[in-house]
Amino acid sequence: MTDKIVLLVSPGEHGRFEIREQSVSEPGEGQILIHHQAIGTNFLDVYHRKGIYPLPTYPAVIGAEAAGVVEAVGSGVSDFRAGDRVAYAGPPVGAYASLRIIETKRVVKLSDSISMKTAASSLLKAMTAHMLLEKTFMVKAGDVVLVHAAAGGLGSILTRGAKARGAVVIGTVGSEEKAVLARAAGANHLIVGRDADLVSEVKALTEGNGVDVVYDGIGGDVLLKSIHSVRPFGVVVTIGQAAGPIPPVAVENLRPGKFLAHPSIMAWCADVGRHRETAIAALRDIEAGIVSQVDSKYRLDEVAAAHVRMESGRSSGSILLMP
Fold first, then answer.
1. Whose CA is closest to 106, among 162, 34, 169, 168?
2. Each residue of 176-203: pLDDT tens digit?
3. Going from the N-terminus, what domains does the chain have, and what CATH number goes with each?
4. Cβ proximity of 9 and 56 under 8 Å
5. Is pTM, for the whole model, over 0.85?
6. Cα angle 131-133-134, degrees, rounded to a multiple of 5
7. pLDDT in tens, 43-65
8. What is d(CA 252, CA 92) in angstroms, rounded to the nearest whole number?
9. Distances (CA, A) of 118 to 51, 279, 291, 312
10. CA 18 to chain centroid
11. Distance (Å, rounded) from C-alpha 88 to C-alpha 261?
């Protein structure tokens, strides 16, 4: 059996991808072969492509989530059979392909109520949101939460998840068009425009107190603004750098008693037990409608264009690769 696979030849810009055909062997003990129906993309993929998070060897296959149908099972596998609808998210990377052999301990079955596109666009993000809302800072009713890029794939799930827990959500978006999507996700208040005075607007919305927690996937010089937007003894969670590297932040900016966290869903899910617990919780949230909308779809051989779209700042929701 042959499959189409996307190889990252070496770290760099969008042109470092090559599309090839590769022979796929039978799955080994404890493994299954999945025919992908939809592959999710995430900013994690951009960090891998650029070498911000370097991979051990190159060429490499990146991608951390996908959904599909089981084609074959290896020896010792009793929980899966050919024809099962499945999905996975988290380590190890290797989703940018039409077929993949993977260990069953990293795979979950999909109920008929969850489409392949929804699973591929939402599973890793829902797992990340569960880690952020339950483990990094336990969001509860009455908390005030600031979510950057609230119309994006992760931002919209964080918004929906925080609202489901009874929180008040302040979202940031880059345009009025994205504001419509963030409101649909449940944001109570929106700060619109990249040049908005974030700190002043947050203070005005919170009677000068600041928010309880900030989820910042923007990075760049926004992180310092996030720190100044949180209340004393609140938490700032940095989860990405879509706007570029984060300049050094003096520890004095954390006074009086602000906490800075930098969690990683891939590190969190390196433990198989935590991975399964988080994936099952994420599937419950997805079945409850806490999902990311699909912004656009690309063929595997259009992977470079998908990454351009992801980095453009124009997308709202998730971008899928369709084998």
1. 34
2. 999 999 999 999 999 999 889 999 999 9
3. 2-110+293-322 (3.90.180.10), 125-265 (3.40.50.720)
4. no
5. yes
6. 65
7. 999 999 999 999 999 999 999 99
8. 37
9. 28, 14, 7, 22
10. 24
11. 26
